[in-house]
Predict the structure.
Amino acid sequence: MPKTLSLLARAGPAAIAIATLLLAWQFYAYLSGISPTILPSPVRVAEQAWANRRALWDNTLPTIRATLLGFGCSLATAFVLSILLDFSQALRRALFPVFIVSQTLPLVAIAPLVVLWFGFGLMPKIMLVALVTFFPMLVALVQGYESTEKEILTLLRSMGAGRWLRFRLARLPSAAPFFFAGLRISITYAVVGAIFAEYAGAARGLGIYILNAKNNFRPDLVLAAVGVSATLTLLLFAATVLVQRLAMPWVRLERGPTP
Amino acid sequence: MTPKLELEDIRKAFGTTPVLDGISLDVHAGEFVSILGPSGAGKSTLFQMLIGGIRADSGSIRCEGQLLGPEVGRFAFMPQRDALMPWRRILDNVTLGLEVQGMGRKAAREKVLALFPEFGLAGFENHYPAQLSGGMRQRAALLRTVAQERDMLLLDEPFGALDALTRSGMQRWLEAMWRRHRWTALLITHDVREAVFLSDRIYVLSARPARVVCEFSVPLPRPRHAGATGLRDASAVEAAVLETLLKTETIGESNP
Ligand SMILES: Nc1ncnc2c1ncn2[C@@H]1O[C@H](COP(=O)(O)OP(=O)(O)OP(=O)(O)O)[C@@H](O)[C@H]1O
Ligand SMILES: [Mg+2]
């Protein structure tokens, strides 16, 4: 019971801030008499979102699929590579610059190219999502391994643990907090990446829905789709927080009083 | 009798900074020996050599007469900070050494569980380290060390991070435990009283670059905390050791 209360207390200020913002927007749209084809009020956005819920939902599903598949691929690749990099300094020196360059590529230029090469299907979306999320995950993992307490490694060595055992028993678990921090950041990138990929060309998806709504002078539907993507991001974010709580029960003990 | 451990003329420099300047010492089976020296002298560095973390520039390390090779498994090491893994429960922290040796989880647990009461940790098997007090963490770290059943314990300032009261309690407890188990032990400490209280012999090191300035034997009867005469004799030894230690410190200061 106190747990839910404290959760409410923490979520409260954010809820109030958002409500205030929406109210101000509603009043402005109402009082200034601005045309809804330029700035629709939040109430109108909500109405239109409800009226078009079938279309919105049909376009959200492909985005979710692209996000999760792309993120899954990126996660698996980042994990395998992070282990290789942790074991080989030469590999780290050789590959890190390449990864950094991959992060500086402007998505605006890359997205249409990837679509051009791989078509309108799922593949280019997965690739773009993986591109934007791979590096943050890789860096988080490599940094996490490096954060291992030196004394723990010395202790393991004194016990006769080899390189792999030291990795498994100490470096890998030490990376957990870094891993989850990276996860929280890149899951939000993942949604944006998927929408951007669809924007560059897709049969269905939130990105293409936004593009069409814009071309039809329907900012209310654009905003409705934005609302959906924001909700999606928040849900995924919450899911990572939940998984972290389950996977790392000791972290809360370190911060709070003992139960 | 050949000593359990024998260091001869160990030298080590990090870059151009000499740290160990010809250290020789020995430890016999069943003996409790302390190394006492100022901070930064190179005491932890000495332990690193024993557990294979770094190599000496010159000198020899012998275990029961044989040169120490790259093989491990002679020493159970307790690092300066407790180095408990925050993500493992106390029970799993304590079995770590046995796990590394390849013992199954179940057998390892059974083996260490019997030791929990003696270490004052009964009932805390499933707690995380963050839930334990400083003294309990040190006892858990010590339990993890002795559970490995090695020839010799290497204790690097096991009580350095504790408050004075807890530390005194831990020293008494360790002395009682040692009388029961007669581990061969090498202890690093800054604390003169601790060294005199626990040890059969004490090596006093100079400030960096470290040499052995003096070797004391502590001929006091055990248990060590008995009676007023025991206290007076201990004070006499403490005074002598402290005198030597302070002298080396001033030498260190005048020739930086
Ligand atoms: N890996 C290293 N590289 C360079 N210098 C080092 C290294 N390890 C230790 N030193 C230096 O060697 C000296 C001795 O260090 P060491 O940790 O052995 O001291 P200590 O006697 O254990 O000190 P304390 O009592 O404070 O723990 C220090 O001056 C330290 O800076
Ligand atoms: Mg030290």
